[in-house]
Specification:
The complex is a heterodimer of chains A (293) and B (237). Chain A is α+β, with helices and mostly antiparallel strands. Chain A is 65% helix and 8% strand. The chains are: A alpha+beta (293), B alpha/beta (237). At the A-B interface, helix 6 of A face helix 2 and helix 3 of B.
């Protein structure tokens, strides 16, 4: 195998490849945003879903406040005796008001508003609870009792989460393919620019691998430089957006916390793009040189 | 060392620039390649430095038919050939030292001994003050000397030179020819394409004379003109 040395001239201002690190920076920036968005939403979905999993909400409605309170206490007793249920707690009025406030507005909950009684039930994760049977049992106390295990909502949210994730993966793949195309154009442009140098190198006995190595190192550097710039800009953007969302959410929407460990995976993006640029440049150069004598 | 057997070559697959060329050069020999402009001297050299493949015939070099050599075998063969191009073909972004060191670096050489060797050769061709200069700051003659130094630095088995003294003064031309003769004495086979009849006569090496893509052997220098006129007449008819 031939040793490598950089025989290529420094990139001149007029050369197309001069812009390549910046194009790579944009590509990595977009990739990082897509990946970060996906990770953030995934993390938010996970937090929300895990807070709902293993929980059942029993709602007792009715206009007679005393009656539904009595019924709630009876239901609480039944629930506490049911195997597989870890805890049962009737929510206080204040807790219910906090839940309703984002929808009705502060101070709009009047005494005559038929606010239901809500019972928060926590089930054991390692025990199965037949919720249909349980609902039938507590319905014997009142027809206005509703049991919600959030399964329907969770299913919708999982559908959304998967769609967002697959979309993000699709965007990433498209950006990677576009990056490959850009590197191919850049490499061919550079080969054309340095055709006479390559001919001389060939005539003096340089192997294709030696020439390709000079190109692949140069394009790896472009990928790495662009990648680092892109990832830094993406992190700044994500942190800025999260800050803005926190400022306007006002408790209506729970802002997902930044999953720092997962987000740190984005730091490999510059390496991925550097490797991709290197590999693409090598394959392109080897194919182009293969057409020469 | 070098044997052409019925070699023809064309750039467009229609018009042969070299027609049915056959000759054999012994190892360690020195030859001039002469002929008018457009006779095919550069094309013949291109075949020898493996920049082009013939359309027909065999080219035996280093004990094999290089016309049919696999592409991956060419670098190894090319490293045994030194070339002085008519247009120098120096790398403009490199200094004289780096240009001359290029063949050694391509062969895998590294370290201080390369520069030492290169600087010694550049001093020998009178460019001790121009070692760090880039080709754009050198005169035609200086570029030519850098090109020659680059061609001989690796002590090639075959040295091909296309008008190597075209841009230098007579004194430097003689000095460079002396370098070629010395290399030849060390066993390098040398082929020099030139228009300079005085140089051919002075060195007295046999020459290959090309006219219109055809080769006429002219051994020695005495009957050059007579044979050349005869050949031209034959071609015109």
């Amino acid at each position: 195998m031939s040793k490598s040395f950089d025989f290529l001239p420094a990139v001149k201002n007029r050369e197309a490849t001069k812009l390549l690190p910046w194009v790579m920076a944009i590509m990595v920036y977009l990739s990082a945003l897509a990946a970060a968005g996906s990770l953030l939403l995934h993390s938010g979905f996970d937090d929300w879903a895990s807070s709902l999993q293993g929980r059942v909400t029993v709602q007792v409605t009715g206009e007679d406040r005393d009656l539904i309170l009595t019924q709630s206490l009876e239901i609480q007793q039944i629930l506490r005796k049911t195997p597989g249920i870890r805890s049962v707690r009737i929510l206080t009025d204040d807790e219910i008001f906090v839940l309703l406030e984002p929808w009705l507005g502060a101070g709009n909950i009047t005494d005559d508003l038929p606010v239901p009684v809500m019972i928060d039930v926590e089930t054991n994760e390692d025990m199965y609870v037949n919720l249909d049977a349980l609902e039938s049992k507590i319905r014997q106390i009142s027809d206005n009792v509703y049991l919600d295990d959030h399964a329907k909502w969770l299913s919708h949210f999982y559908d959304l989460a998967y769609t967002v994730e697959y979309t993000a993966i699709g965007i990433l793949v498209m950006i990677l393919l576009a990056s490959v195309a850009i590197v191919i154009f850049g490499t061919k442009s550079s080969l054309s620019e340095h055709k006479s140098i390559i001919e001389i190198m060939h005539l003096m006995g340089a192997h294709d691998q030696m020439i390709a190595k000079a190109y692949q190192i140069r394009f790896m550097y472009y990928g790495l430089k662009g990648g680092i710039i892109g990832v830094v800009l993406a992190f700044v953007t994500v942190l800025g957006l999260l800050n803005l969302v926190q400022n306007i959410s006002g408790g209506l929407v729970e802002v997902p916390t930044l999953p720092y460990m997962k987000m740190s995976l984005l730091l490999i993006l510059p390496l991925v793009f550097a490797f991709l640029a290197m590999l693409t440049a090598r394959i392109t150069v080897m194919r182009e040189l293969g057409r020469m004598v | 060392m070098v044997e052409f057997k019925n070699v023809s070559m064309s750039y467009d697959k229609e018009h042969d620039v070299l027609k049915d060329i056959s000759f054999k050069l012994e190892p360690g020999s020195m030859h001039f390649l002469t002929g008018p402009s457009g006779a095919g001297k550069t094309s013949l050299l291109k075949l020898m430095y493996l920049a082009h493949r013939p359309t027909r015939g065999e080219i035996m070099m280093f004990g094999r038919d290089v016309a049919k050599a696999e592409r991956q075998d060419l670098p190894k063969l090319r490293r045994r050939i030194g070339v002085v191009f008519q247009d120098f073909r120096l790398l403009d972004h490199m200094s004289a030292v780096d240009n001359v060191a290029l063949p050694l670096r391509i062969s895998g050489g590294t370290g201080a001994h390369i520069n030492e060797h290169v600087e010694e050769l550049l001093r020998w061709v009178g460019l001790q003050d121009k070692m760090s200069s880039t080709p754009s700051t050198l005169s035609g003659g200086e570029k030519q000397r850098v090109a020659i130094a680059r061609a001989v630095i690796r002590r090639p088995d075959i040295l091909l030179a296309d008008e190597p003294t075209g841009n230098v003064d007579p004194e430097m031309a003689e000095r460079l020819m002396y370098l070629f003769v010395e290399l030849n004495k060390l066993g390098t086979t040398i082929i020099i394409a030139t228009h300079d009849n005085s140089l051919v006569k002075k060195i007295g090496a046999p020459r290959l004379h090309l006219v219109g893509g055809k080769l006429l052997h002219i051994e020695g220098s005495k009957k050059d003109i007579a044979d050349y006129i005869t050949a031209r007449k034959g071609l015109n008819e």
